[in-house]
Write a structure and sequence with these properties.
By secondary structure, the protein is mainly beta. Helices cover about 0% and strands about 55% of the residues.
């Protein structure tokens, strides 16, 4: 079992920045496979950014150049630095971890609201 705990959400004005954190515990030995998804009201959950099993990073087109995913293997923690936030970035952001066996674990989610 893997437990994921997100933090760092909140209310921010358009153009502002936030950093989300996700701390993992349990049967996880590497941050490879961890990532961030988001779900806005009335929409499906979508990938934001992830660290692949090989250690590379993928981003949704809508966040490329604005968001950066990074991590600390020693702390089993990944971060999502979000810059130049837009109202359309408003959503609940979920941390995820996918095992090599394709089991996916989810955090409880953290709300990000971009509004003036």
């Amino acid at each position: 079992q893997v437990q994921l705990v997100e933090s760092g959400g909140g209310l921010v004005q358009p153009g502002g920045s936030l950093r989300l954190s996700c701390a993992a515990s349990g049967s996880i030995f590497s941050i490879n496979g961890m990532g961030w998804y988001r779900q806005a009201p009335g929409k499906e959950r979508e990938l934001v950014a992830r660290i692949t099993s090989g250690g590379s990073t993928n981003y949704a087109d809508s966040v490329k150049g604005r968001f950066t995913i990074s991590g600390d293997n020693a702390k089993k923690t990944v971060y999502l630095q979000m810059n130049r936030l837009k109202p359309e970035d408003t959503a609940v952001y979920y941390c995820s971890y996918r095992t090599l066996g394709l089991t996916t674990y989810w955090g409880q989610g953290t709300q990000v609201t971009v509004s003036s």
